[in-house]
Design a protein that fits this description.
The chain has helices at residues 2-18, 113-118, 131-143, 207-218, 220-248, and strands spanning 29-33, 36-39, 46-55, 59-65, 68-79, 83-96, 99-103, 147-151, 155-160, 163-172, 179-189, 192-205. The termini are far apart. It is globular and about 70 Å long. Helix 4 (207-218) crosses helix 5. The chain is of the alpha+beta class.
Length: 249
């Protein structure tokens, strides 16, 4: 029995060694501020300051991700050889509404092989989506700053007790939507993710954006009528402005 126990312990130890170094949860920490973002009338983006620790010898990668959702797009194509029209609807399943990444100046390396092998960037959420369509989707959301990798913003310092402290800043886009966002830090060592800790940050409308959202999603008819009236008044105002300028000449 004793021999059996020793052999089992050796096998378990070898299994752990083959999986790489394993760290306890207390070896990693993450904090950030603010932990709640208010989207008011004057909101124009927000900066989140993050700090925490990873085991010594590890690099830290910070990711902020929105909720997973199915996203539909219209695919354009030529009809009759010269007319560009919507020819199909394509859908990407379970794609984060927001995907922000903060790295140090070494681990990302311009998106090279080391980064791709880690599979923690945008391609990690591609799933079974068509590669060409997914890349077109990336062009759109990167332009809107909803998907962004900020390279070199993770800075390190000695935190003592065998830990490596880090700080970073990430910018939330001006078009941020309300909801809960996952904030996580990954510990990377020897080309592998060896630890992770997760938290969350929330965003909510206030003031006029909150009223507008309430009308749009709770009183659709009133919202539609209001939109038409505002469009008509805007048109009348613009016609008055340009007619006055025309008369002046």
């Amino acid at each position: 029995m004793k021999k059996y126990s020793i052999a089992l312990s050796i096998c378990f130890t070898m299994l752990l060694m083959s999986c790489g170094t394993v760290f306890a949860d207390e070896d990693m920490s993450l904090s950030f501020k603010p932990d709640h973002v208010t989207i008011g009338t004057t909101y124009n983006g927000a900066t989140v300051e993050l700090s925490g620790t990873v085991p010594k010898g590890c690099a830290a990668v910070v990711r902020v991700m929105g909720e997973l959702k199915d996203t539909k797009f219209k695919k354009k194509g030529k009809v009759l050889g010269f007319l560009w029209m919507n020819v199909a609807t394509v859908e990407l399943d379970h794609i984060p509404s927001l995907f922000l990444v903060a790295t140090d100046s070494d681990i990302y390396g311009g998106g090279g092989k080391k980064w791709k092998d880690l599979n923690i960037g945008f391609d990690s959420v591609k799933g079974n989506s068509d590669t060409e369509i997914f890349h077109e989707f990336l062009k759109l959301v990167e332009h809107e700053e909803h998907y962004m990798i900020e390279d070199g913003v993770v800075k390190y310092h000695d935190a003592g007790n065998g830990l490596r402290g880090f700080t970073a800043e990430l910018t939330l886009p001006s078009s941020l939507q309300r909801g809960d966002y996952t904030v996580e830090v990954l510990a990377v060592r020897d080309g592998k993710v060896v630890g992770k800790t997760v938290s969350s940050i929330s965003a909510a409308f206030s003031g006029f954006p909150k009223i507008l959202s309430s009308i749009a999603f709770g009183h659709e008819i009133i919202y539609g009528i209001s939109a038409v009236i505002i469009a008509i008044l805007a048109g009348l105002f613009m016609s008055m402005v340009f007619s006055d300028k025309g008369a002046a000449h």
